[in-house]
Amino acid sequence: MHVTADTTEEFNRRMRIEIPEDRVASEVDEKLNSLAKTVKMPGFRPGKVPLKLIAHRYGPGARGEVINKLIPETFEEVAKQEKFLLANMPDFTEINADPGEGLAYTAAFEVYPDPQLPPLETLKIRRPVAEIAEEDVDRMIETLRGQRRTWSVADRPAAQGDRVIVDFEGTVGLKPARASTPEPAPDDWAASSETDPADEASAAPSETLEGSSLPVELGAGGMIEGFEAGLIGAKADDERVLELTYPSEYHKPELADCPVTFKVRIRSVEEADPPESDEDFARHLGFEDGDMASVRAATRQDLERNLASALRMKTHQRVVDALLENMDEMALPGQAVEREAADIAGRKRQEFRKLGIDPDGIGITPAESEPQARRQITVSLVLGKLMTLSGVTVDHDKVRERIEGVAASYQEPKRMIAWYYEDENRRAPMETTVLQEQVVAWVLEQADVTEERMSFNELLK
């Protein structure tokens, strides 16, 4: 095989690859011989058709199949030999595969640069250490109670933690606009049949809209800053005027930093009534024995799994940050960055659509996602090089352990484990994650590591 290479730009490569006729002919003959075992022709028994007749009838098709196989196959051989970090699929042109002349083609493609890593022993990394305390279990059980709370009308001023039902009108400048939620609505809104505040709430300054019967949980952080606090102490039928400002990072750019006046009328004040931590509550959670000790034990087990996952993620993040902080910024092929940025923007747009938010009004574009794209590509290249340097291979016992951990949260763990092992493509993401964790562990063995003890809550921030 003969290769002529040409560097057209910093990351662009162009190669002319020539494969001799003897390799092409050998593979064509192999395909025809395989075909001869099953082909049927009038006057001949199966498997007894002369190869000359088979070649005459099927030769051109067999050669075409061989050419289609050899082009990507030989390119992969060259790319591996040259140690190219491919940034895209090659574009194959100028293909010459006439009988007797072998195969020749041109491949044009982009390559990534080779990351220049800092000496790993110079990295200073703070490894997080945490454990589940009884207060964490208490807090989670309170969360479970809160998720199952009911609301009842309270004949008193609204306090933190209450829910108020309001009618409102907002004015931005001289033009009315509705109150709006900068974040997804709390769980209790999403589960209710009342109007979704994300739909009830974001208006351009030029629109005049009114909202009614909007549930607002005081202290939940579902509304813009100052809205909930401004309703503390209000009673049913009270009216309040709130002079606020939309945040700079508001999801409607046209409203960011705009002053807004809300006229709010309180329809009712409601107080939460969470269930007692008793046998009925335990049974409602699926514990037939009604024993709260069983609830606490299961809650701790779930928190331990969450803790292990959070520690892995935080450690991974700190190792990556330490590596990038000690490297010069990498130049990357522009088209690869554009593709990654477009993918990121597309995923973000999908997520916002699921929340009922129009992504066109938020300014999500590939250009806005470019810094994230550059980081993701850089991290991928760095981890790839570390995998090569470390020589680690995926630990299948750890993959199994991880799959069992995921399956434990399902009602039928054994079926979930079997589902993963029915198809290697289902396990592939898990195997990649475990392999990256092994690489991170290898880096920690080389680096200067100190432990940082923190609470479970601090770890999750």
UniProtKB/TrEMBL annotation:
Keywords associated with the record: Cell cycle, Cell division, Chaperone, Cytoplasm, Isomerase, Rotamase
A Gene Ontology biological process term: 'de novo' cotranslational protein folding
Reaction(s) catalysed by this chain's protein: [protein]-peptidylproline (omega=180) = [protein]-peptidylproline (omega=0)
Domain of life: Bacteria
Molecular function as annotated in GO: peptidyl-prolyl cis-trans isomerase activity; protein folding chaperone; ribosome binding
Domain Trigger factor ribosome-binding bacterial: 1-144
Enzyme class, broadest EC rank: isomerase
Family listed: Belongs to the FKBP-type PPIase family. Tig subfamily.
InterPro entries for the chain: PPIase_dom_sf, PPIase_FKBP_dom, Trig_fac, Trigger_fac_C, Trigger_fac_C_sf, Trigger_fac_ribosome-bd_bac, Trigger_fac_ribosome-bd_sf, Trigger_fact/SurA_dom_sf
Ranges for region Disordered: 175-217
Entry note about domains: Consists of 3 domains; the N-terminus binds the ribosome, the middle domain has PPIase activity, while the C-terminus has intrinsic chaperone activity on its own.
Pfam families per record: FKBP_C, Trigger_C, Trigger_N
SUPFAM superfamilies, alphabetized: FKBP-like (SSF54534), Triger factor/SurA peptide-binding domain-like (SSF109998), Trigger factor ribosome-binding domain (SSF102735)
Described purpose of this protein according to its UniProt entry: Involved in protein export. Acts as a chaperone by maintaining the newly synthesized protein in an open conformation. Functions as a peptidyl-prolyl cis-trans isomerase.
Compartment(s) where it occurs, according to its Swiss-Prot or TrEMBL record: Cytoplasm
EC number: 5.2.1.8
Occurrences of domain PPIase FKBP-type (ranges): 159-262
GO cellular component, one term: cytoplasm
Domain Trigger factor C-terminal: 292-445
Matches recorded under Gene3D superfamilies: 3.10.50.40, Trigger factor ribosome-binding domain, Trigger factor, C-terminal domain
Descriptive protein name: Trigger factor
